[in-house]
Design goal:
Elements (H helix, E strand, L loop, with lengths): L13 E5 L3 H10 L4 E4 L11 E5 L13 E7 L16 E5 L12 H8 L4 H16 L23 E5 L6 H6 L6 H11 L4 E5 L2 H4 L9 H4 L5 E2 L5 H7 L2 E4 L4 H7 L3 E4 L12 E2 L12 H11 L1 E4 L8 E2 L1 H14 L15
Parallel strand pairs: 1-2, 1-3, 3-4, 6-7, 6-9, 7-8, 9-10, 10-11
Antiparallel strand pairs: 4-5, 5-12, 12-13
Helix pairs in contact: 3-10
GO biological process, one term: polysaccharide biosynthetic process
Protein name: Beta-3-deoxy-D-manno-oct-2-ulosonic acid transferase
Pfam family, one: Capsule_synth
């Protein structure tokens, strides 16, 4: 099990939790079964020596700002079968005691790891195997069930570019894309840089599913994109594209795994290591990395994985997580909780 970001929890028996919905709180217990977790209430006095676990980038209340040890939690890079917004359980979370991987304003545990860790031959070999499995099994962050789609544009005389939209207002854009924050501005910038290319704009799956809004006016978007497509598996679109443009989307990382040229208009965690074409540069120094080192850091060492199939032995490795997702994906399970979405806070 990776201990990146969890060093502070090795010698404690309890921790306070803030900003987690009740459902997320129950999931947190499965990631940290050895800890007694307490949900913080505003009228409770908290010692400065307390370990505080916070969901995402939620602001810490004044009553908790004196706490010395703060760990932030977010979804991992290989998450689930289906969207989190539709209440599909995560197989991985990340625990960061320095910052958060999408917050470029401060160094995260992942950034420090990628800058300083001496990657072993074993770790790099495992990373290459993970990469092969992710490609061969067509796995991505959400592994959405999609209908058979074959209507990919047949283009031979133009460069084929996939432009990946995001949910406007999402924390990864707020903290990781300092210059471009709107999908329309992003799409216009890609067209400006690539006036002769064939652009396919792909909205975020939460937007396509109707769970969230992205603020993009489709009529305006059609001035810049040749087509807008929500159909088809994202991995098939990555295979189709010659180049992928992103703000901070994880799809850029998934494109790197598949050997694609990736252009970053924001500052995602996988940019700045010499593997992407970066429109903007982060102020902090980053060393050059090989792709297998980036994969090892982001998928093996940084996240925590928990089994969705074996509750007796919940802690699993990245390889085991991929094996489970393949099983679950092939079972084609139906998520019966989707109808509860209007009444629940995830």
């Amino acid at each position: 099990m990776s201990l990146m970001g969890l060093h502070a929890l090795e010698y404690v028996k309890e921790a306070w939790v803030y900003g987690f919905s009740y459902r997320k709180f129950l999931i947190l217990k499965t990631f940290l079964p050895h800890l007694q977790l307490k949900r913080f209430k505003l009228d409770q006095p908290i010692s400065a020596e307390t370990v505080l676990i916070v969901w995402g980038m939620q602001p810490v209340p004044l009553a908790l700002q004196h706490v010395k040890t703060l760990i932030r939690v977010e979804d991992g890079f290989i998450r689930s079968i289906g969207l989190g917004a539709a209440f599909n359980s995560p197989i991985s979370w990340v625990f960061d005691d320095l910052g958060m991987y999408f917050n470029t304003q401060v160094e995260s545990r992942l950034e420090r790891l990628l800058n300083q860790h001496d990657f072993s031959a074993k770790e790099c070999a495992e990373a290459k195997i993970l990469q092969q499995h992710l490609i061969s099994q067509k796995l991505s962050k959400y592994n959405l069930k999609t209908k058979q789609f074959t209507d990919f544009p047949t283009i031979s005389a133009q460069q084929k570019i996939l432009v990946v939209g995001q949910v406007e207002g999402d924390a990864s854009i707020q903290y990781g894309s300092p210059h471009i924050k709107r999908n329309l501005d992003f799409l216009a910038k890609v067209r400006q840089l690539c006036p002769e290319a064939y652009l396919v704009y792909r909205p975020h799956p939460d937007v396509s599913a109707g769970w969230r809004k992205d603020g993009l006016d489709l009529a305006q978007a059609q001035h810049y994109a040749n087509v807008i497509r929500t159909e088809g598996d994202i991995t098939d679109w990555l295979d189709w594209a010659d180049e992928v443009h992103v703000m901070t989307s994880l799809t850029g990382f998934e494109a790197l795994l598949r050997g694609k040229s990736v252009v970053c208009h924001g500052l995602p965690f996988y940019s700045g290591w010499g593997l992407t074409h970066d429109i903007y540069a982060i102020a902090r120094t980053k060393r050059p990395l090989r792709l297998e080192e980036l994969i090892a850091g982001a998928l093996i060492l940084y996240p925590q994985y928990r089994s969705l199939l074996n509750q007796r032995h919940p802690q699993i490795t990245a390889t085991q997580a991929i094996e489970e997702l393949v099983i679950l994906k092939n079972k084609n399970k139906i998520n019966w909780l989707g109808w509860l979405q209007p009444f629940m806070k995830y």
